[in-house]
Amino acid sequence: MFAPEGPTVRELAVQALSSVEHGYDLLAPKFDRTPFRTPRSVLAPVTRALRGMGPFERGLDLCCGTGAGFGVLAQVCRERPVGVDISAGMLTAGRTAHRSGADLVRGDALALPFGPAFDLVVSFGAFGHFLPRQRPALFAQVHSVLRPGGRFAFPVPAPARPGSRGYWAMLAFDGAMRVRNALWRPPFVMYYRGFRLGDVRSELARAGFDVELRALPELGERSDGSPRCRLLVATKAGPPR
């Protein structure tokens, strides 16, 4: 599951008993050698889909971590990518990896330090760190930093079928996290099963977005012919700048 240079079991245990911010500070030097980093097999189809909607001027990677999404923004945006994350450690690792290819800013996704300066916001794998009650505020923040006509895009995997191995794995993980957070402080928020597409679409609409889904055929189909993964594209009302 992990490369030989990746974190040890002890290091992962220490991270899991920390806050989200401090946990990622600890994991940052080895994060890119874990399966938690968004793989190229996902980034490439997202890039293709966004390229067909662009080009965009300025793009933001929300909760950027070490910058896996910067390659996507570099290909579909005319200006340098911008990334924002709450973990100073992850940003340090991102600056080392990307040198002068991106601008990295430390900030809270629930209080973004930008005005309406972006035409595209992307995010990869970060939504499990937000409780359902926090999502309306998160989406309102994204809406506030987009220019009219700007887009908020992120991949949405199809939910695991009840009874499948993936279903039981996510159920067990979320259950373990709830027990951990009931017994230990500070909490570490990371839940897989709370990000339900119907709820998310409604919340985005209430935040002022028009929402559509686009299949990512490179990631395959399920047995019923439906896509294994879609790109959700939320567009801020108003003509593009």
TrEMBL record:
One of its GO terms (molecular function) is methyltransferase activity. Keywords: Methyltransferase, Transferase. The keyword Lyase does not apply. Residues 60-150 form the Methyltransferase domain. It holds the Pfam family Methyltransf_25. One of its GO terms (biological process) is methylation. Its EC number is 2.1.-.-. This is Class I SAM-dependent methyltransferase. It comes from Streptomyces aureus.
